[in-house]
Specification:
By secondary structure, the chain is mostly beta strands. It has one domain. Helix content is 0%, strand content 36%. A three-stranded antiparallel β-sheet has the order 3-4-5, with no helix packed on it. It has a two-stranded antiparallel ribbon with strand order 1-2.
């Protein structure tokens, strides 16, 4: 079974994105190291409120959008699509 995950530059739903909106598609089994995972605030008036269903992730390495353009380090992702593993020293 092939599972896809989408990193994007906004909290819009996939079907609301324009074809030119930067996205990065992740295939099942791929792993990415994050330096910051911002789960967002629960208050809609907060600057880091991401619609309550997205988080903002800054990765160790920048990722090149499938649409081309500059590499991007910080992306939004749907919370339900994320598996978080923590490295313990």
């Amino acid at each position: 079974m092939l599972v896809l995950l989408l990193f994007k530059q906004s909290t819009k739903q996939f079907n609301e994105l324009k074809k030119t909106d930067p996205t990065y598609i992740v295939h099942s089994g791929q792993t990415y190291f994050a330096t910051v995972v911002d789960m967002g605030a629960s208050d809609p008036k907060s600057a880091n409120y991401y619609g309550s269903d997205h988080c903002k992730v800054t990765f160790k390495d920048k990722l090149k959008p499938q649409e081309g353009g500059e590499y991007i380090q910080t992306w939004f992702v749907f919370k339900g699509d994320v598996e978080e593993y923590r490295l313990v020293p």
